[in-house]
Each structure stands twice: as structure tokens, then as C-alpha cells.
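User: quick one, sequence for these C-alpha cells?
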């Protein structure tokens, strides 16, 4: 996962959890299923109340009858049975050049309708992880949001957008926030005409220490356009074992404690992180943090959700 640029998510359920935490879970490469992981580790059962499955190919939205990988469907059935909020993530760095509809308002509206229907069909969220470049996509996303909200109104389906956590955010994202983030309230509550996101998620660069992340997090608080109660914040787990999911690295606890201490006074909505990193090119296995025999008691996601009250 490279620098996350934009994400939109929705959940086809009424209301919203009071707070959220959990992993993004790298499960498949679109319909190619180049490296699906069919064994879900037991530690994910206690890894917070939200999980996002990555990645769907954005160019499949509207071009194939069913763009959802089989691995997603199987994992969704399992995680929904555990009471988790599930997202389908569309995009990612590997599909950065596949956003043929993102700057076309008509095509973006069609994509919004399709995504809304997918959310209702599978009872999941749809996460749009846009890493396609620095162009201002506010116009296209306006069409996407409006079409999506016609299928999944605010207060019924949750919608969220990602921001740069480093290096301080793109200028167009400030305008985007002003246009689509409610200036008050919490996720799940209706604002205005309903054509808004419920919250934003501030992401980080791969392997970035939490001390560096906090520098860029502060820039968003200083921007004057971020509603803290409608924000979640990203940590990195996969590439540097910062959350020590398998091995109980004490740095995991220190990282989480530092992030929670920094963010708690702002009354933010939650903290998310990557759980499983992608394998190296040509391989079908992931790196060290993927292991079905992980220590479920290691100071990772279960410790994080305990600190946030979101287990």
C-alpha cells in the first residue's frame, strides 16, 4: 500500500458504531485473484469492529456484471457473522491508472449507483481508495456522492473519504472537505440535504513512525476545515510490524499509546491500520505479519480496540 489518496466507503446498515477500529485486509487483486488468502487468522476475530477488504479493480465497476472477487464474498460472510462492519476497497496503488470514470461526472454517477447497489446486495461498505494522481476530482466525486446517496441515503449508509496524512495534504482536498464534510455531528447522523460524507480518514505513508504521522495529523487539525468527531486516523502495521500482531513487539503498545494519547483530546471517531501487507512481486504469500498462527494476545489490534472501546 503506497500513500493513500482518496477513499469513499459506505455501509448498508442503519446507524453507525459509536467508535471504530480495525484493519484493512489485503485479500485479492481484483478478479485476477492473484494472491487471495483463504485462511482467515483467528486474531482477526478480536481485531476491532471494522474491516476493509482490498482490492477491487475500479475499471471493473460498470464494465463487468459482478466486479466482486470471490475471496471478498467468502470473507464477508465470515466477518459479518462476527458482527463486524465490512468494506470492499476499490483501487489501491496497483490500480492507480484504472480510474477511467473518476473525472467524468456522468460515468462517476453511474459508478455511484453501482456501488450503492453493491453495498445493499452484500451488506458491506464500499471504499474508494483513489491513488490515481493529484488532479482535483471534486466534480466527479460530487456526482458519485449524489448518485450513491439516492441509493443509500445519509443516515442509512455510511460514506467516508480519505485524506493525505503526509506530507500535509493536497490543496484540492481542502476544497473537497469544505464541499462534502459536515461541519458538525458524528458519523451516522444526517446533515443538510444528505449529499455528504459521514467522516474522513487521514492516512499515512508506509512504515511512517507515529511521531512523524502526528506532525501531519496536526496540520489537518490546524486547517480549520476538519471536523474531529467525523475523522478516523490511519496507522501502518504491515510493513514494519509496528503493531506487533504476531510477535508481541513492545513497540506496538508504545505506538498505539502514543497515537491514542495524541488523538483522544480531539474526540476523533477511530483509528484504523493495515493488517496484511501485499506479497513481493511474483509471490503468492504475504510478509511476516500474515500468519494464521499469530499470537492473538500480542499488543496489536485487540489492544487498540480495547483502548478505544471499539472491540
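Assistant:
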Amino acid at each position: 500500500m503506497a500513500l493513500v489518496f482518496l477513499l469513499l466507503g459506505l455501509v448498508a446498515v442503519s446507524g453507525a458504531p459509536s467508535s471504530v477500529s480495525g484493519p484493512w485486509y489485503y485479500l485479492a487483486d481484483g478478479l485476477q485473484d492473484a494472491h487471495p488468502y483463504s485462511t482467515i487468522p483467528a486474531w482477526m476475530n478480536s481485531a476491532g469492529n471494522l474491516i476493509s477488504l482490498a482490492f477491487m479493480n475500479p475499471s471493473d465497476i460498470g464494465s463487468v456484471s459482478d466486479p466482486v472477487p470471490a475471496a471478498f464474498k467468502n470473507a464477508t460472510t465470515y466477518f459479518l457473522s462476527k458482527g463486524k462492519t465490512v468494506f470492499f476497497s476499490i483501487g489501491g496503488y496497483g490500480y492507480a491508472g484504472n480510474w477511467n470514470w473518476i473525472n467524468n461526472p456522468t460515468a462517476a454517477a453511474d459508478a455511484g449507483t453501482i456501488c450503492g447497489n453493491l453495498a445493499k446486495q452484500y451488506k458491506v461498505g464500499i471504499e474508494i481508495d483513489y491513488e490515481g494522481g493529484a488532479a482535483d476530482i471534486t466534480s466527479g466525486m460530487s456526482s458519485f456522492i449524489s448518485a450513491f446517496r439516492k441509493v443509500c441515503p445519509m443516515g442509512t449508509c455510511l460514506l467516508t473519504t480519505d485524506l493525505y496524512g503526509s506530507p500535509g495534504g493536497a490543496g484540492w482536498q481542502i476544497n473537497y472537505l469544505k464541499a462534502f464534510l459536515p461541519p458538525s455531528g458524528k458519523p451516522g447522523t444526517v446533515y443538510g440535504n444528505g449529499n455528504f460524507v459521514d467522516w474522513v480518514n487521514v492516512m499515512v505513508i508506509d512504515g511512517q513512525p507515529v511521531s512523524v504521522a502526528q506532525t501531519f495529523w496536526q496540520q489537518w487539525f490546524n486547517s480549520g476545515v476538519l471536523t474531529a468527531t467525523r475523522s478516523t486516523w490511519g496507522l501502518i502495521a504491515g510493513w514494519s510490524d509496528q503493531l506487533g500482531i504476531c510477535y508481541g513487539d513492545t513497540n506496538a503498545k508504545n505506538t498505539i499509546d502514543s497515537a491514542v494519547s495524541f488523538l483522544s483530546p480531539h474526540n476523533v471517531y477511530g483509528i484504523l491500520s493495515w493488517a496484511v501487507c501485499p506479497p513481493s512481486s511474483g509471490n503468492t504469500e504475504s510478509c511476516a505479519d500474515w500468519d494464521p498462527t499469530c499470537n492473538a494476545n500480542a499488543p496489536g489490534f485487540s489492544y487498540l480496540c480495547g483502548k478505544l472501546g471499539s472491540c
